Amino acid sequence: MDFKQVVLDETNDTKLDIYNSATDVDLPGIVILPGGSYKPFKQRDSERVALTFLTQSYQAFVLEYPINEKKNYQVAKQSITTAFDYIIKHANDLKVNPQNIGIIGFSAGGQLAAAYSCEANNHARFAILGYPVINQALDEKIGIQSEDVSKLVTTDTAPTFIFGAREDGLAPYVDHIQPYTTALFENEVPFELHVFGSGGHGFSLGNQYTAIVNRDRADKHFAKWFPLCLEWLKQFK
């Protein structure tokens, strides 16, 4: 495995962390958008997720969008487009199939991933949303101005896999996931939804590998989202 970091925009500290598998064939790619309320990114849903997807024959990319004093929702959205453009332009060197690149976002990163997957002419073959923030309920708390991404869904939105927990108190199911999946259903967008009775917000993979850097938070039942997701992803290979 090779790792390198590319600066996509110096003015707002946007970077792309590239986790490149040593392979002789082009692999599908996945762009990872960590959560964390636009504060420093945590390993739980960045590096450790990337390395886990790497073991499943994906080229993995973590997008470090603008955070802290440079946080800006619209700029963060634009950084996703920049990241996809970079990956597609360098697809040969990165050994990635430019026709099979997806996106996964957690929490606030899930809102960004959903927004990108709804854009016209986006390059996401699929979207995975983990306990996503969907509306503007947390804008004041986070200090940004976002949007209700459920209103962005169209018939062209990328096929979507969504997971979360019934006991999520930060981004409650009825306020976030439910209206988004309703919009997907009404627009006939293929999707799969898993709402677990255990676990919670910010659990990432839910296993011990992420629990080590996530206040020992693990849940074997919640962790089943990943193998379920891998099975769902087989349709795109």
TrEMBL record:
Residues annotated as domain BD-FAE-like: 16-124
Spans through the membrane: none
Domain of life of the native organism: Bacteria
Cross-referenced Pfam families: BD-FAE (PF20434)
Protein's recorded name: Esterase/lipase family protein
Native species: Lactiplantibacillus pentosus MP-10
